[in-house]
Description:
The protein has 184 residues and is mainly alpha-helical. It has helices at residues 48-57, 59-64, 70-93, 105-109, 116-134, 138-149, 154-160, 165-183, and strands at residues 3-5, 12-14, 19-23, 29-32, 40-44. Helix 5 crosses helix 8, helix 6 crosses helix 8 (165-183) and helix 7 crosses helix 8.
Amino acid sequence: xxxxxxxxxxxxxxxxxxxxxxxxxxxxxxxxxxxxxxxxxxxxxxxxxxxxxxxxxxxxxxxxxxxxxxxxxxxxxxxxxxxxxxxxxxxxxxxxxxxxxxxxxxxxxxxxxxxxxxxxxxxxxxxxxxxxxxxxxxxxxxxxxxxxxxxxxxxxxxxxxxxxxxxxxxxxxxxxxxxxxxxx
Length: 184
């Protein structure tokens, strides 16, 4: 069985266990369900964690040797959400002849209900985060968002905001330092 490396987590796995993202001859990006279509391919585990890592590290762009438009990322993210859900459902259906469910099903089935104490702690953490965010400048908030949630690099942020990369990095570090103070 041929092995391929996930561009998200870096693990080597069987080709059949992974999702192949394909760059066709006309430079469109598609999911190759068969794994046999012509074109340059990149492989990912069917999990949102690997997808997020690949987006953040620009692994897909490096593997396919082209810039990936935001719309394509969004469409692929939908596919990965669906595939990750399907993988969970396949695991739920994997039972032995005596009815014992194997795999990660135990983890999925044994999700404890959130206690009142957990809810209160989570609510308090949210309130602290909101207060902490109010201490940041608009520039800090925007750069944190672009860096952590949009997956942009400091270079990309600097180009977008017409500033230098060092200034962007210092802003992000300063904002994170301010936020950490509230949680210590």
